[in-house]
Design a protein that fits this description.
Strand content of chain A: 5-15%
Number of helices of chain A: 13
Number of domains of chain A: 2
CATH class of the largest domain in chain A: Alpha Beta
Number of strands of chain A: 13
CATH topology of the largest domain in chain A: Aspartate Aminotransferase, domain 2
CATH architecture of the largest domain in chain A: 3-Layer(aba) Sandwich
Structural class of chain A: alpha/beta
Largest sheet of chain A: 8 strands, mixed
Shape of chain A: globular
Radius of gyration of chain A: 23 Å
Largest interface: A-B, 55 and 55 residues
Oligomer: homodimer
Chain lengths: 429, 429
């Protein structure tokens, strides 16, 4: 098929006509699908059901430190939970605090603590006229929601092929003392699937922040979430690098079992320097007596160590990969020759990032909704929900059944083509 | 035995001599006991072990609203968890948000949210020159730690026999717009065991706060924690009363299963007005995708409803009551005639509140420590850790075995007598 840019007005009109018919047919078919959020499918959840049998009424509830996990205590987590999380997060147990069921909650609490009490004795952000965060875009809407909630000015940093635009990151971080943080998903980034290159990670570790309380919010949410375990990506360990370069306290690193075991009912962790651990613990001990240790023990008893976690993640991949392949196949088949869109083909994570021609993302997502398919809102992947070019759409293939996904993505390509054809025709007027 | 006040110098000297010998004998006996915190004993934890069998790999994980509890969703909690918690908290499910494993965490988050974002659109407390909280004393150290952490000025309100000194509460709340909250444990109060009278609760509901963002922090931690189920106390339901008196939004009420099922691994809840629920949810949705719903389901499947909870709590009481009786017996036997101390004899909760002669609490707790028994730090029951009269000591009988408790309380009476005799002798010089 011809590129749209090479089509005559008549050809485009014909294209539009037949697409309109297709769209209407879809619209009348009564879809009720949701490919908006990166949530695991039921088949993935079934993988962890064995975890529900390891702790029963006759089980042993003692932690290796003698703590009865059914009682109060162990504020920062069980030693064996720290050991497991440390392995998965590529660090040491003494660098880890285990929290409740969500790493998002840890990030919120850290920003909130910095706002109310500052970072390691620095001025609380609520006492400053201006606080800025760098936001790699497109990125994760829930990150941006936290900083927006605290009135923090968000500065967009473009995502390049090998990670954020580090020239820009260095310019801001090293010169502007109001820049207090940056949101990063360094591996299989949400939504682009980008894996930060070794050089990019190295440049992060070599930052020389103007603000003493600057922290990299390193949300390694998809660290072991490869789609093909024969082609894994590994990135340099940021805590180690920062320590080597003399800034051990510059990173908060986050990990979670939410997409390993059960979403929202798992365990999550912060990995950071001993000084940050002490700073965070001083606040944490006011907030809680300790988080759910029985659930920590349950995870340890089931997952044992990082090798078992990897084996488990390969089972997730076996379910996820065919869905991602299906999406790629349809996008290539329907859009590959037309020169009207580009999209990511990630090796891990939960998303495909899709770019329409400028000005069409909102329209396409609206058309999908009108035909019964909910996608992530256009703009959600940018600070304040505003995509300046209105191009980016996040596709989340994980939850839908293969046949639902097939329908949704086919419809999606029709919407993209129709919206583009209409636009080109308008532009000709 | 004679009252100490009626003893001659010689009699007191003799008393001191024999007490010193007793103390030294205890000191040499190598005790390592801890009666510092109100934590359940192993026997109490065993009561809930059946809860670990209700959710296994073959169980049904669907909530009554169709939510797969293993996946993301249900931000404010499962409907059946709200229903259970509402029954236990004497309110309606629509007034309830289920949180993670600790009500302390809810309280911290509410104070933090009020500090950063205000209450229902009012000025955030971080923008105010002065914020005050009323603290009923003696009270719960972890409450006071939260307000101290946020630089909130704490004003002590004496606990009377039927609850806080309401004349003083009304004076402050109704006239001082910098008073934004009051910490209350209305039933079997920590540590005095006080049950607020109907009149006191009614006066709370009739408060006319000078500050629109004033909230009563009603920590009903021991609502169903009676020591004798043939002699329960019931107090008027504060949300209902506040609504009747035209101030539905004036109360945050807290409940927790931490001393019902497993401490630190249970579920906790906020009960409040629909307007407060909306205000809190707006912040909560930035902080998390939702809390551990599997644990909510586990609690509902095991506890079913408030009747079963009450039956379960009677089993706790059967374990706890003999310990509290033992404490009373020893205190009466060893101190009853001496006129040197007073203490509470609670009908519920986890503590006995003990008052020495002025100026002796720190000394007694220090002597206990030197003999190998850890008690709650003297002063902990007051804001800033300062008991102005240095009299109050909190005794926590729940965790120790009966024989350890017997030893600890016997030693305690020796310490109290010895410290008092020494003081009286000093005063005679």
């Amino acid at each position: 098929m011809k590129k749209y840019s090479e089509m005559t007005r008549e050809e485009l009109l014909a294209e539009k006509q037949q697409l309109k018919k297709q769209y209407e047919a879809y619209q009348n078919s009564g879809f009720h699908l949701n490919i908006s959020r990166g949530i695991p499918s039921e088949a993935q959840l079934e993988l962890s059901m064995g975890m529900m049998d390891v702790l029963h009424s006759e089980a042993d509830y003692l932690s290796e430190n003698g703590q009865d996990t059914r009682n109060y205590g162990s504020l920062t987590g069980l030693p064996e939970a720290k050991a497991l999380m440390a392995e998965v997060m590529e660090t040491r147990p003494e660098n880890v605090i285990i929290f409740c069921d969500s790493s998002l909650n840890i990030m919120y609490d850290l920003v909130s603590k910095s706002y109310t009490h500052g970072v390691m004795g620095s001025t609380p952000w609520c006492r400053l006229d201006k606080v800025k965060f760098l936001c790699v875009v497109p990125g994760y809407d829930r990150h941006f929601a936290i900083t927006e909630h605290f009135g923090i000015e968000m500065v967009s940093i473009p995502m390049l092929a090998d990670g954020p635009d580090m020239d820009l990151v260095e310019k801001y971080v090293n010169n502007d003392s109001s820049v207090k943080g940056i949101w990063c998903v360094p591996k299989y980034s949400n939504p682009t699937g980008t894996v930060y290159s070794d050089e990019v990670v190295e440049r992060f570790a070599r930052l020389t922040p103007a603000a003493e309380d600057f922290r990299i919010y390193w949300d390694n949410a998809y660290n072991v979430h490869h789609l093909d375990f024969n082609h894994m990506h590994v990135i340099p360990e940021i805590l180690t690098l920062c320590k080597e370069h003399g800034r051990p306290d510059m990173v908060y690193k986050f990990g979670s079992f939410s997409k390993i075991s059960f979403s929202g009912s798992s365990i999550a962790a912060l990995a950071t320097s001993p000084a940050n651990i002490a700073d965070v613990t001083a606040q944490m001990k006011i907030q809680t007596i300790g988080h759910n240790k029985i659930n920590q023990l349950r995870h340890v008893r089931f997952f044992k160590n990082a090798q078992y976690v990897m084996m488990h993640m390969a089972k997730h991949a076996a379910i996820l990969k065919p869905k991602f392949d299906l999406v790629q196949m349809i996008l290539h088949r329907e859009l590959g020759d037309l020169g009207i869109a580009e999209w990511s083909d990630p090796d891990g994570g939960y998303f495909v990032s899709f770019n329409t021609q400028p000005g069409l993302a909102k329209k396409v997502v609206g058309m999908m909704k009108d035909a019964g398919v909910v996608m992530t809102g256009a703009g959600a992947t940018f600070p304040y929900g505003i995509d300046p070019e209105d191009r980016n759409i996040r596709i989340a293939p994980s939850y839908a059944t293969p046949s639902d996904l097939d329908s949704a993505i086919n419809l999606f390509t029709v919407c993209v083509r129709l919206a583009t054809a209409e636009k080109l025709l308008e532009d000709m007027n």
